[in-house]
Amino acid sequence: MALLQHLVFFPVLIPLLMGTLLLFPFFHGHIPRQRVAVFIANLLLLVTAIKLLSDSLTNGPTMYMMGDWQAPFGIALVNDPLAAVMLLLTAVLALAAHMYACAGDDQKGPFFHPIFMYQIMGINGAFLTGDVFNLFVFFEILLIASYALIIHGGGKQRTQAAVHYVLLNLAGSSFFLFGLGVLYSAFGTLNLADMAYKAPGLDQEHIQLAKSGALLLLIVFGLKAALLPLHFWLPRTYSYTATPVAALFAIMTKVGIYSIWRVHTAVFGDHAGELANITPDWLWPMAWLTLVMGTIAVLASQSLKMLASNLIVVSAGTLLIALSINTPQAMSAALYYLLHSTLASAALLLIAGMITDQRGQAQDRLVRARSVTQGAMLGGFFFIAAVALIGMPPLSGFVGKVLLLQASTDNAAWVWPPLLISGLVALIMLSRAGSTVFWRTSGSGSDKVRSHPLQIIAVVLLLSTLPLMVIFGGSLTELTQKAAEILYMAPQPVAEIL
Amino acid sequence: METIYAICVGAMTTGGIFLVLRGYTFAVVLGLTLLSYAVNLFLFASGNLKINAAAILGESEQYADPLPQALVLTAIVIGFAMTAFALILALRARSDLGNDQVDGKTEIYDELGQAPSQQRGENQ
Q1: Distance between CA atoms of A286 and A289, rounded to whole angstroms?
Q2: Which ipTM score applies to this complex?
Q3: Which of A89, A96, A430, B27 has fewest C-beta within 10 Å?
Q4: Cβ atoms within 10 A of the Cβ of B70, count?
Q5: Is B46 close to A167, i.e. CB distance below 8 A?
Q6: Does B15 touch chain A if contact means CB atoms closer than 8 Å?
Q7: What is the pLDDT of residues B11-27, one digit of tens each?
Q8: CATH no. for residue B19?
């Protein structure tokens, strides 16, 4: 029972311990043992996330103080439905990406498994933290792990993409610290709950500081979330990196979206007096343009992985538009769409990886080439993922789109056309890609490459979540509404939250 | 004191941003280093500048805000590690791509009338 009090910290602790353990003799250099260990850690993370979710629904938001140093001075972790849902999403995604990697991708470079664990630790930490400075620390943990994962396997293109990704994010980290310094001097605290409570009472000279600090942080989160004009790194990085890594990275843009919710929606919300809602005005045109540019980029995609990466930009644009509408209803719809789009685009990236393996020289380029070995199975997978990503019934993409359309009826003239046209463009491009890969074939290769059973299980796991999101749609939307309500609640003094 | 401090941080940031926008990885890494120096000083100043004030209670009449100092310490460690990583990556890119352009372009050698492969061979 005493241990369960500390459960909030487990999503950070489990990967930290496991990642470090893997560097020691019994596991080091022994791939099969590492695989089993990381698989067990992922299962534990999944169980923890489910338990945390049910706790947060019964007990409401809870703040956990590390080492019992009291807020607002100690390090705070917050568990509420929003954080718990994101943890659950990460756990499912990590499980699938890791299973796919165990089919052989993990042996293409050293230290895949420990770095994978540290990556999960950074992502989980960023979702749980109740403090902007620790958000920075966990961002750096997830970034340095991602720098290493991105060049996993090596190769010219990967190094090239990694240089851009690393340099951009290092510059982004500097801006993050500038923003933090400005916010600290304005608020005198970096605890998110405390900042939200103090925001309405700031005096005049600090209000301008707080505004500029908030907008500096918006740049940083925009860089992570692929907000135009900061999204140009994404397509190349995602399409050149190893397949399981790319699938795991489907959650990385969502970390940026999540941080905007936590910082800009919760701290600078309706209650904040003069500081209320300073970001939506800036976010709105950028988000709209992100969606439009992403849609155009989808039309220009030359390979399947590039297409999937550009669809991630489109989903980021869609989510950012929902963020700039800034109502609890839009937020709840966006959370549903976020879950769906992460799982569906990760599935498409994994399928693209399997197709690449089976097409030999042509890889995943959209050109006439030899047929894939397991055409019926891959075609079926591709079809399901495509239906979900386009947003056609009966899968979760349709529900997500409808929820978003309902939430944006006030701004229908601006929001609906790009949203619906992006669906149409996805339909055109995915049908073109599918028919090129599976039907425009010239003979079959001599070496019959077949997909590893683990790869198939990973894809089935991700795809099966899509109909489940529709079947349990009622309770899931209740959950997202509850998460949105809590995020939009008027802030309480920190002492009372404890 | 505040003015001089602000000018120093501003100058370093300007230099850092100028270098980050250059096309060569070495200049960019230098720029990032400058930026991280500037940001450390900036964070330090966010708790207000005070003279003769220790960050520990009872050591001096006034005391300085200890939190920014803790933040700076963390930021220095992280910045140092990241710079080291960026340098290694820049070296790797230099050997993988055969030049030190951020975009990995080889046109600059073509303009000089040398084939990229020759250039690579000479430098190795």
Answers
A1: 5
A2: 0.84
A3: B27
A4: 14
A5: no
A6: no
A7: 999 999 999 998 888 89
A8: 1.10.287.3510
